[in-house]
Design a protein that fits this description.
two-stranded antiparallel ribbon; 3-stranded antiparallel beta sheet; 22% helix; alpha+beta; binds iron/sulfur cluster; 183 residues; Alpha-Beta Plaits
Length: 183
């Protein structure tokens, strides 16, 4: 029969040799590979007891920052939500009432602010877009394991930092673009 290409290969039903039939040489060869790994440096770690150091560019869970007086910096401008490619952020704006100056930095604030961590791709664009330096991605926090999908919609109770912490929980070196392009 004439073939269209030269790629066809004739399959020969070759009988196995004695050594191939007893399988022992290939088993020994496989065990040797396993044995070699006993004497090599392990590439795995005993997580969660041991944790790896994250790279400076690592982007973990978000934090909504407070100012030096302990007031929330977010003014519910919505720029983070607009810039989010995953449409993971929603918020409701409210007007600050007299006497609430210690709670909210400006006249407008977010009475509800939610990030759907199931949608978030940790791109950091919300952090880049924020004109008030109110939202940052942390450099240490991983998304937790949960049993219920609802638990991965993070509200202000999980996002707002408990007290003003100028350096804490924020990735080192300032905004992402600054660190990526200016070292
Ligand atoms: S990190 Fe990216 S995907 Fe996640 S909330 Fe911010 S902008 Fe959206
Ligand atoms: S986190 Fe920043 S960008 Fe988002 S609503 Fe608040 S002030 Fe605006």
């Amino acid at each position: 029969m004439k073939s269209l290409t030269n790629r066809s290969k004739l399959v020969v039903n070759k009988q196995m040799t004695f050594m191939e039939r007893i399988y022992l040489p290939v088993i020994a060869k496989g065990m040797l590979v396993t044995l070699k790994h006993f004497f090599r440096k392990s590439v795995t770690i005993r997580y969660p007891e041991v944790k790896r150091l994250f790279a400076a560019a690592y982007r973990g869970l978000h934090v909504l920052k407070k100012d030096e007086n302990g007031a929330e910096r977010c003014t519910a401008c919505g720029l983070c939500a607009l810039s989010c490619p995953a449409e993971a952020i929603t918020m409701t704006a409210a007007e600050r009432q007299p006497g609430e100056e210690h709670l909210y930095k400006e006249e407008k604030y977010a009475s509800m602010y939610e990030i759907n961590m199931l949608r978030c791709i940790f791109c950091g664009l919300c952090e880049e877009a924020c004109p008030k330096e109110a939202i940052f991605l942390t450099n240490e926090e991983l998304a937790p394991s949960v049993y219920d999908r609802k638990d991965l919609i993070f509200g202000k109770d999980k996002l707002v930092e408990k007290e003003h912490n100028p350096d804490g929980k924020v990735r080192g070196g300032g905004p992402l673009t600054e660190r990526l392009y200016h070292g």
